[in-house]
Give the backbone structure.
Amino acid sequence: MSRVSILSCLHPTAGRLATMCLALAAAVPVLAAEAQAPLVFSPYAFETQANGTIAAEAAFLEVPRRHGEPGGPRMRLRVVRLPATGGGGRAAPVVYLSGGPGGSGIGTGRGPRWPVFDRVRRETDVLLLDQRGTGLSEPPAACPHEQHFDDAQPLLRDAALTALRATASQCVAYWREAGVDLGAYTTVESAGDIEDLRRALGIRKLSLWGMSYGTHLALATIRLHGAGLDHVVLMGTEGPDDTLKLPLAADALLADLGVLAKDAGFDDLTGSARRVLEALRKQPQQARSAMHDGRQVTIGEFDAQLVITASLGRRTTQQWLPLVLREAEHGDYGPLADLVLLVRSEFSGFGAMSLAMDVASGQSPQRRALVEAQARRSLFGDALNFPFPAIGDGLGLADLGEAFRGPLRSDVPVLFISGTLDGRTPPANAEALRPGFSNSRSLLVRGASHDNEMWLGQAAIAEDIAGFLAGRPVSDAVLDLPPLVFARSRSDLPSARPR
C-alpha cells in the first residue's frame, strides 16, 4: 500500500494506522490503473446443469497478487459474462459474488439458481466472477494433509480441535513451502479485484449481488470502493463482524422450527434435542448408516451438537431433523448416524483460500467475548462455529484489524434479503446494518433457510432483485413461502448420500 507496509496495516494492534491503511487501500487501484488492461472477452459456451447451453463470453482479469504492490506478482481471475437480453443498457452491469468463502460464482450460475440469473440478465449484463483462489481463478494446490476421525470413537470437542489445529498447521506449512502467499487471500484484496474489474470494463459504476460470504465481500467493497458502485443486493447478510455466528441464534431457530413442527406431530423439538444430547453425554451410542452402506459409527454428544447446528442451515435437513431426533429418543440412532458421518466428512481438510479468508476477517474482541459467553448458555456449546475461532490462533495468518470490522455507513442503494429460517446468516445481521445505510430496502422471506428457496421460493424474489438492480423503485416487503414438509417416517428420509 503505497509507502505503508501492508503487514503493519494487518497487525491487530495497528490502531489509527489501520484506519489510514483502509483509506489508502481505496486509492491503491489508482496506482495500478495505468497497467490495467481492458478485458478481452471471447465467445464461451456456458453449460448449465438443467437449462442447456447459453451463449456467453469469458475473459481473464489480471490483478496484482497484493494490491499494495501493483508492480509485483499477478494473478488471473476468470470472469464469465452473460450478455443482457434486454434493458437497453440502462442499468450498470452486475457482478455476482458467491459464498463460502471458496464458492465459485461461475459454478453457482450453472446450477439450480440459473432462473434468477436469467431474469436479471433481462435487465443488464451479469458477470460471474470466480474470486481469487476459487474455481477457475488459480486456486492453490489442495493440502495433502487430512484429518479422519475414528468411527469407533465418539467425537470429543477438545480432542477434535487439537487434531484439526495440527492438520491446519501442517497445511499452512505445506502451502508456504509451495510458495503460496496466504496473505494475498483476504477480503480486502478481493475487494480490490472488484475495483480492478470495474476499471478493466471501462465503466463508471457496476453493481454487486452477493450471497452469504459474498455479502461480506460486497460490504467490504462498499467501504473501500463505494464510489464505483451503483446498486448492491445482499442475500443472507454476513456483516463485517459476523464471521463468528452467535450461538444462541441456533437455540432460537430450533425453537422457531419447533413451533412449525407441532403441526406434523412433533410437540417438543427443543426438549427432544435436549434429551438426546443428555443421553449421549451419559452414554455414546453405536449405529449403522444406511446412507453410507451400513457403516457403523459411535455417536457422542458433540457429534449430535454439530449435526443439529448444521441441520438448521438448510431447509432439507430442517425437515428431517425432528424425525431424526425422535428416532434417536426411541433408540434408533441410524438416521442420526447418517448425518454424523456427513458432518464429520466436512472436517477432513482445509482449503487455502477459505481458511485464510475466514481467519483474516476474524472477529472483534467484543464479538469473540459475546460468542464465548453465548456458547456457555447454548444447548450446543460452540458447535455452531467449530472449529473457529480457535483454529486460527497461532497459524500466523493475516488479520484485517478493527477498522475492517467497524461500523459501516454508506448511501449506496442496498437491498437486504433475509430468510426467517436462515441458520447461518439470520435476519438480525441485516437489521443491525440497516441504520448505517441511508438508501436501503428489505425483503424478508418467511420460511426461507440459507438455501435455494431464498432464491426460488417465489417468483417475486427474482423480480425484486432484477427490478432493484435496474434502478426501479422497490419497497420493503415480506414474502411467505409454502410451509416446510417434515419427514414423518423412515421412508421420508434419504437412503443414499445427497449429491
